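My current task is to audit a protein record that another person submitted. I need someone to confirm that the C-alpha cell line plausibly describes how this chain folds. Take the sequence as given and treat only the C-alpha cells as open to question. This is what I was given:
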Amino acid sequence: MHITASVFINDNENGLLQDYDRWLEELVPFNPGTDPASGGYLHNRTGEDNADAHMKRQIMGREVVVAITDGKLDFGPWEQIFYGEFDGHRPKRVLVKVIGE
C-alpha cells in the first residue's frame, strides 16, 4: 500500500460512501497551495500536491483486522472491506496476511 491509501470496514451503502468523501474533503480540503497563511499545506512545499491525501489516510487508517470463522469473513450483514484512494498518482498494491490456523 502507498501512504496515501486507506483500508477500512463499513456498510456498503452508496450514500454513506459519498458522506465519507464529503466529510473528508470538509476536514482536509484539497489545496495545492504552499502558503499556510492562506490555507496551504507545508508538505506541498516538497513539490507534491498531496498533503490532503496523507491526512485523509491518517483519519481513515491503513489496515484492518478481520476474523475468519469456518473459512468465511466474520462480518455483520452489511460490512465490507473498502480500499480508499486519496492520491491516484502512483501504482498501489494490497497485502493480505492470514495468521492462525
Q: What stands out?
A: The two ends are 26 Å apart (CA to CA). Residues 14-27 form the longest helix (14 residues). The domain at 5-85 is CATH 2.60.120.460 (Jelly Rolls).
